[in-house]
Every structure is written in structure tokens, then in C-alpha cells.
């Protein structure tokens, strides 16, 4: 279980499913002051959240706290879970597209026009489960056949450490375990076909590609945590200047654990929080945006509604729109974590470029209110 205050905003399919199971939904106010239907929880099972993301029941996930340090590992685990969920879904979609382009599937479509396998194919989950229920042995054997040469390549790669080899073995297995029923239906249907080798090749190529893409999950989680801590420190520094106005050296003062605890308690009482949200994809019908992940960090304050309106109209004179690099470079001297942030950002940027993940960052700062909105946008 992860111990985090989680808000899950549901897609139409997700809301319909909850309502059909007689579960109450509530309107949840998010960091941008928009209210949407969803569920909130203080503790949750990572697997159940991932399962909901995988079946397109979740459109947005948000957490908000005054203090992130004590929940560092949980926040990073949640971040990785979300990135992996997007990768699993994107892998599955890309694989289906590769399958319907294979000669054996095309040949089947020409010979069976009433049983086409294409983008419009819609076989119910119940029917797919019924068909595949008798093929467990074939599925297990085929999974081993697919993974064997990939695992051999991983184990023989002298550039990988033992730990990296173990991670890659597990990662490729997880991608296979999360294949949709429809893709398994296609794999088993053509397993005895002359053109099956083309399907095997398509799976292995994509598995290798997504094994490499999965490396960015770690970088993203570290970057997200760094940004959350930066925002937390900014709030603590600002509150310390109010609570301890007689002190000259605020930066040293807030390193004292007891002082820091007092400041955090004060922030909690004032509901001064850092908000972190993940917007997943562009919806199942948004062509080209299904593999999109939009991460936003908000440093909330009393003037947020006014700032939000300015943000949306793009008419605010005090709005400064910059990249994350500019944001770090303009931080005041002595602000902890600046060099580390640039270091993380450089690694994340390089990792994304190497595996063809599109990454852009945008920072909006509102000087009148002191609010910072950081956007990290990935397209897998």
C-alpha cells in the first residue's frame, strides 16, 4: 500500500463503471480550482491504481501536501507507476498497429471479409477470455519463445551491470504480462501460420524499444521529486521569514529539524500546499495523444483563482513563461538544489532524446502572487 493523499479523476468509462457498481463519486476540486468527478483516498494499492489506468478509467491523478520529504519514496514510486502504465498502454497500441500490418493478418482479412482484424475490430472481453481460456499452455509457451532471444541478448551484454540485467529481464516480462487480450488473441490465432515469424519479430523489436524507453521512468520520478522539494523549500523559506523575522540567516535556520517541523505544522494549518498532478493521455479517441503524459506542479496560494484566470486568458502582465532550464538558471544564489536540479534535468533530457521520447518543459511564474506553475510534457 502507498500512503499518500490521492485524488483520482475518472474518464467517462471510469465513471460509468463506478456508477454501475453502485459506488458513489464525488466532485473533487483540483489544484487549478476546476471540479471533476472522481474518488479520493489516503492509502491505496499501487496495483489497483495501475489497473484502472490500464483500462482507461483514469484521466488525472493528483496529490497535495505541505511537506514531501517524509514521503519521498512513495511519491517516486507513484510517479514510476504512472509512467510505466503509460508505456504499457502505448506498447500495446503500437503492437496492435504492427500486427494488423503483418502479411498473415492482411491475408486473413482478404480471405475473411466478415471477420476483419483492423482498427474497428471490437470483440468483447467476455468472448476473448472464453477463446483464450483453452489456450493457457500455448500462451505460456509463446511467451517463452518471444522472450528467450531477448533475455539471451540482455545476459550477454557486457555493458549492463548485474542489477541492470535483472531490471531489464523483469521489465520485458512485465510488458508481456500486460498485453491486452486482443493482442494475445491475434498471437494465438496465427501461431501456426507460415507468417508467424513476422509477428514474433514485431513483438521483439517493440519489446527492445520499450525496454529502452522504460529507463526514463526513473529519471522522471527523480525530476518530479526535485521540483516538489524545491517548491516545498520555497514555501518553508517564505514562512520562516514571517515566523522568524529577527533572524538574518534564514537558509541556515531552516536546516534545523525542529524549526523545520514547526514551519511545516504552520503551513499545514494555513493549507499552504504543493500540488502535483499527472494528466494521462488525451483520451482514447485523441489520435496521436494517447501516449502523452502531462505533469504539473503548482505552488498554491490565496490568490490562485485570480492567477488561474490570468493563466487561462494569457493576458496577465506579470506572467513569465520560460523553459525549466531558464527557471533553474534564474534561481537566487544560495538556493539549495539548483545545481542538482540542472543535473537531473540534463540527464532527463538526454535520456528522452536517446529513446525518442518527446519532452518539453514550461514554467509560468506570477511575480505578484509568487506562484509558480511547472509543466513537464512527455510524448512516448
Topology (elements, then pairings):
Layout: E1 6-10, H1 12-20, E2 26-29, E3 35-41, H2 46-54, E4 58-65, H3 72-100, H4 103-111, H5 125-132, H6 136-155, H7 162-177, H8 181-189, H9 196-213, H10 216-243, H11 250-253, H12 257-269, E5 274-280, E6 292-299, H13 304-313, E7 319-322, H14 324-329, H15 338-354, E8 358-366, E9 371-379
Antiparallel strand pairs: 1-3, 1-4, 2-3, 4-5, 5-6, 6-9, 7-8, 8-9
Helix pairs in contact: 2-3, 3-9, 3-10, 5-8, 6-7, 7-9, 10-12, 10-15
Secondary structure tally: strands: 9
Mean pLDDT: 87
Q: Write out the strand line-up for the largest beta sheet, numbering strands in chain order.
A: 2-3-1-4-5-6-9-8-7
Number of helices: 15
Q: Fraction of residues in helices?
A: 40-55%
| Spatial extent as radius of gyration | 24 Å
Overall geometric form: elongated
| Terminal CA distance | 28 Å
Largest sheet: 9 strands, antiparallel
Strand content: 15-25%
Flag low-confidence runs: 310-319
Order of helices and strands: EHEEHEHHHHHHHHHHEEHEHHEE
Structural class, judged by helices and strands? alpha+beta
What can you tell me about this protein's structure?
The protein has helices at residues 12-20, 46-54, 72-100, 103-111, 125-132, 136-155, 162-177, 181-189, 196-213, 216-243, 250-253, 257-269, 304-313, 324-329, 338-354; strands at 6-10, 26-29, 35-41, 58-65, 274-280, 292-299, 319-322, 358-366, 371-379. It is an alpha+beta fold and 380 residues long. A 9-stranded antiparallel beta sheet has the order 2-3-1-4-5-6-9-8-7, with helices on both faces. β8 and β9 form a beta hairpin. The longest helix has 29 residues, at 72-100. It is elongated and about 85 Å long.
